[in-house]
Amino acid sequence: MKPAEQEATAAKEEYMVGPVDDVPERDGLLVDVAGETEVGIFKVDGTLYAYENRCVHQGGPVCAGVLLGKTEQHLDAGGRVLSEDLDDSRLRLVCPWHGWEYDITTGRVAHDARYRLRPVELTVRDGYLYVVV
Amino acid sequence: MDDTARRASVLPGRTQEHMLVNAERERDRRGLDDVFIVDCDSHLYETNSFPEIVRRVRNRNIRRPLETMSAEYIQGFMIPQSIGDRSVGGRLPISQMQHVIDASDMHPIAATTLHSMDSMGIDYTILFPTPMLNLGLTPQIEIEIELGHAFNSWLLDDVLPCSDRLLTMPYLPLGDPDACMQYIEDFAGRAGVVGFMITAVRYEPFHRNQYMKVFAALNERSMPIAFHSGPNWFDRPFTILGRFLGVHALGFPFYAMTHLTNVVLSGLPERFPNIKWIYMEAGEAWVPFCIARLDNEYKQRSAEAPLLQRLPSEYIRDMYFTTQPFEEHENSAHTRAMIDIMNGTQSLLYASDYPHPDFDTPAIIWDQRCLDEREKRAILGDNARALFDLPGRVAVPGGSPARAS
Ligand code: FES
């Protein structure tokens, strides 16, 4: 595995997305910025997160993927599986190309925290959301 | 609201075309439009085309009932299915990957394939079916023979003529050697045919004498044979596994290993030296294992493989293996060792497996730090160009689906 190369940013510009309330809770938006960069913007428990839409695996459109809780198995004291369920308090963004999972709050690869999505800066002003790239 | 602000536009939901925008970006970042790339294993979803395919069934008594059935019925009840959730619990958008582009000037399957090829910078692709990869498991041999022949005819008559960049290796109904002979007669000389394909999830002991005429006919024509692998959860050893992950991980290489072992130990490369043997969709991590394992066994039991003039490893290193899924080691020196053991810079053939959900874009090879540029180009296209005797590159930068000249 190798992370996709990170490109250095020159002077940063703000691009308006729209009303901040348009970002759905426990879901997200995918926006195109100047025809050059795609950014996924997500809201979880009222907090916004934004990442470049480029998976560290093969560059897939990770931010077009689903947000799902981490799958957990619950064992009894004897090691028997009692149940399996999604832990909705630990949301994962799943890349639609091959299923690599990311912690939505950190952008880190779930199976290898050395690698992460490129975070994108957000600004909210007068109720409107801007990406800063 | 700041009316003077630059705007970011909110994109619509996922579509297959949108999914490939990222492939185009990765292609351009690496300049892959300047690299000759042959995709030696890509797929079409023939489900929607079953009405066109069954019209080509030659036997009226088989064609008539098939024509009364829906595509879903044919796929669900006439072709054995390979169970297992490819979507990982709905995480992967399988139905989006099956999306077919409408096209007024060519068959939609051709237009869809050319679009994905252009997005990834691929010059040629070798197309295979999807549900019909399990046709070899039907107990109704006449259904296999008729549907397989109809599929090959449909692909060669209706889809491949749309572009010289589309190639195939027609399906062979291995269960009936006489039918195989007819298929070879009918399809070997057709435009776009670069060999024949045997689905690996099947159980004929093809080292037996009744199959030799099939190999002889292919040897006479110097036609490559590809064993296209897959999983089969119903197969006894896999029934102990509780999750598809394990079946998927082991199933593909399991059948490839079994057939490779049979080819080598029965001396088929000695009997039919003009045949090139290819193993598809099983990755490559299993090949160094087979090399070490078969050499070790052969040294102890060579009397059981009397046709062999060389060690099994020497035959294996003359064979070909498609790359997908490329099993990269964490340590690139280990990836290099895997490639060296199997003579991979000469024997590996890039494959995407697109649009199946574990597909690889060409970047998977281009980004390997353990390969120099000449080796990357060999695996991505030059090995296939030599093997299939393909002309130079034809990809149309910008993605025109027009027939290549
Ligand atoms: S590109 Fe995202 S999982 Fe492969």
Your description of this structure?
- Chain A has 133 residues and is an all-beta fold.
- Chain A has strands at residues 14-19, 27-33, 37-44, 47-52, 67-75, 81-94, 101-103, 108-109, 112-116, 121-125, 128-132.
- In chain A, strand 5 (67-75) and strand 6 form a beta hairpin.
- Residues 1-7 of chain A have low confidence and may be disordered.
- Chain B is of the alpha/beta class and 405 residues long.
- Helix content of chain B is 43%, strand content 9%.
- In chain B, strand 5, helix 9 and strand 6 (225-228) form a beta-alpha-beta unit.
- In chain B, helix 1 packs parallel to helix 6 (108-120) and helix 8 packs parallel to helix 9 (212-220).
- The longest helix of chain B has 22 residues, at 244-265.
- The chains are: A mainly beta (133), B alpha/beta (405).
- Chain A binds chain B through residues 1-2, 4-5, 13-18, 22, 29-34, 38-39, 53-55, 58-61, 64-66, 68, 71, 94, 96-99, 125-128, 130-131, and chain B through 1-2, 5-11, 13-14, 18-19, 21-23, 25-26, 29, 88-93, 96, 328, 330, 357-361, 363-364, 367, 369.
- Bound molecules: FE2/S2 (inorganic) cluster.
- FE2/S2 (inorganic) cluster binds next to loops of chain A.
- Residues 55, 57-60, 62, 95, 97-100 of chain A line the site of FE2/S2 (inorganic) cluster (FES).
Report the largest inter-chain contact: A-B, 42 and 37 residues
User: Given the structure, what is the number of helices of chain A?
Assistant: 0
Mean pLDDT of chain A: 92
Number of helices of chain B: 17
Low-confidence stretches of chain B: 397-405
Choose one word for the global shape of chain A: elongated
CATH homologous superfamily name of chain B? Metal-dependent hydrolases
Ions and ligands: FE2/S2 (inorganic) cluster
Name the CATH class of chain A. Mainly Beta
**What structural category arises from helix and sheet content of chain A?**
mainly beta
| Strand order across the largest sheet of chain A | 1-11-10
Radius of gyration of chain B: 21 Å
Uncertain runs of chain A: 1-7
In total, the number of strands of chain A is 11
The CATH architecture of chain B comes to Alpha-Beta Barrel
**Helix- and strand-based class of chain B?**
alpha/beta
Query: How many DSSP E strands of chain B?
Result: 9
Q: Which fold name is given in CATH as the topology of chain B? A: TIM Barrel
Proportion in β-strands of chain A: over 45%
CATH-derived topology of chain A: Rieske Iron-sulfur Protein
